[in-house]
Specification:
Blueprint: H1 4-10, H2 25-36, H3 43-50, H4 54-66, E1 70-73, E2 76-79, H5 81-89, H6 96-107, H7 115-124, E3 130-131, H8 133-143, H9 153-164, E4 177-180, E5 184-187, H10 195-209, E6 215-217, H11 218-223, H12 228-231, H13 236-248, E7 252-254, E8 261-264, H14 271-278
Antiparallel strand pairs: 1-2, 3-5, 4-5, 6-8, 7-8
Helix pairs in contact: 5-14, 7-8, 8-9, 10-14
């Protein structure tokens, strides 16, 4: 039987995990520093360290988990491999790769899942799609297997998602959503992620969804949930470009034939790609 700590982690809410507080990278930066310094023993200690009230900490630690930075239980807070690397090498959370990784974990399913973010990027939007938060809410409520007890949960998360990708202190610098007339927003990938970041996202999803396969089709990478095309709102040509870039640096091979097979050549633990990005050896580029 799972212990209380495991149960607590598994029951982290997938809706309204942020307590209606928007993503604030300045506060997240402070939380990482607090954890790294060993000061995150309780909500009160975190509140004192950051100068915020305990209620806001509920939302902050919701973001902390959903962004893939770490986890918490009754004994304390723990940085993930990604969180530890970011805290060490990008403590201000400003590097483009860090922003892409925060986005990747937010819209994919690992130990945590942010329901509205997952549904939006893996099912709802496609390159060039224009939508309103209300249209996103209607879609998510329609596909949820059960309606939440909090009737406003999906509505609040849909609004929070838009703020996440339009506020510069969130993930607005990624330019994945652009404001349109009549309160609409357009989804698109403005600039490709760096090679090591794209490789991490690709191989992390690959090993979770197809752990026994070394070869999959380009169309799967472009169209299936959590793969590059969906999570980055990339067009087929942008997905092809990312694959060709990864082939050029020896991480995979691609055959431009009828079935367009993509074969994985990199078999080290995927976290080593993040280590190469954040702490490249001998002054080599982290891209």
């Amino acid at each position: 039987m799972a212990n209380c700590e495991t149960c607590l982690r598994r029951t982290m809410r997938t809706l309204c995990f942020n307590q209606k507080f928007p993503l604030d990278r300045e506060l997240m930066k402070g939380l990482l520093q607090c954890i790294k310094a060993g000061e995150a023993s309780s909500k009160a200690s975190i509140g004192a360290y950051l100068g915020i009230n305990p209620y806001k900490i509920e939302g902050l630690r919701g973001w902390f988990c959903k962004l893939g930075l770490g986890s918490f239980n009754r004994q304390g807070y723990y940085l993930s491999e990604f969180g530890a690397l970011a805290a060490e090498y990008d403590p201000d959370l400003v590097r483009p790769g860090t922003l892409w990784l925060l986005h990747y974990f937010l819209v994919s399913e690992h130990d945590e899942r942010a329901e509205v973010w997952y549904r939006c990027f893996n099912e709802f939007v496609f390159p060039g799609k224009s939508f309103t938060p209300e249209e996103l809410r209607e879609y998510v409520e329609r596909v949820l297997p059960e309606q939440p007890e909090n009737r406003d949960a999906v509505k609040e998360d849909a609004k929070a998602l838009v703020k996440t990708y339009t506020n510069t202190n969130g993930l607005g610098e990624l330019a994945m959503l652009s404001k349109q007339p009549q309160r609409r927003f357009r989804a698109a990938l403005a600039k490709l992620p760096e090679n090591l970041i794209a490789a991490y996202a690709l191989f992390d999803t690959w090993q979770r969804r197809y752990p026994g396969l070394d070869t999959i089709r380009l169309s799967q990478i472009a169209d299936e949930p959590e793969f590059l095309g969906r999570v980055f709102v990339a067009t087929p040509s942008q997905v092809r470009d990312m694959v060709l870039h990864l082939q050029a640096v020896g991480l995979l091979s691609f055959a431009d034939t009828q079935h367009e097979p993509v074969t994985r050549r990199y078999h080290e633990p995927v976290v080593t790609l993040l280590q190469r990005y954040y702490a490249p050896a001998d002054g080599a580029s982290g891209t």
